[in-house]
Amino acid sequence: xxxxxxxxxxxxxWAPRVWPLVIFVALLLSLALAVSLVIRFWDVDLAxxxxxxxxxxxxxxxxxxxxQALNDYSxxxxxxxxxxxxxxxxxxxxxxxxxxxxxxxxxxVLAYLLGPGLLVNGLLKHSWNRARPKDVVEFGGHQxxxxxxxxxxxxxxxxxxxxxxxxxxxxxxxGFAAAVWGRRENMYAGLAFGVAWGTLVSWSRVASxxxxxxxxxxxxxxxNVVNAGVLAAMLPWSRPSVPHTxxxxxxxxx
Length: 254
Prior knowledge:
2% strand, 9 helices, two-stranded antiparallel ribbon, mainly alpha, elongated, disordered C terminus
């Protein structure tokens, strides 16, 4: 049954729904920062890359049919979700019975365009210029290796962050959308699916020598910060489509 409530106006109304998302994004950012700090003392980027590299210049991903399939086709899933959401949004304009699907559809499209699209592939990937593992001297290439956040203007590459991983972790947006316009169980299912799919795609990129571990961690963190930011911007004009089970620690404030 659709909840007939006015649009939420502040933290008190939305806290019971969005508190798991706040924790989720905070954990991703903490993990990405932790990996980056550990690299200062023990270079986990090179260590994890070496696990998947075997002389002479052969990466595990080059021999794995699964990795090849993920490298070639994994971004298609995120694109299909965004395109599908766009079509649903257009239908919502012309069909009154679909009107309630307009806001979540718009959210999924914006999250895709601003996260994997603009931030990762449009800005960072073409400005950071970090060399990929398969291109650095340590793995038979000709580029100099640079640790995460030690930007070398002379370096050439598209390693930081990972476009494939960002498109995969973008699917966590399904859980973000369900938090506001769906049910709590669907929120957790969407987050779990996005994390599982993103982890699998990230592994294929690292195992193929296309990215370092820190690249994919930051892809997960950054794209979900965008997911959260787009959702936060839409909250003042949104209303829940179904009632949530108010079982969160912040439910007392609603």
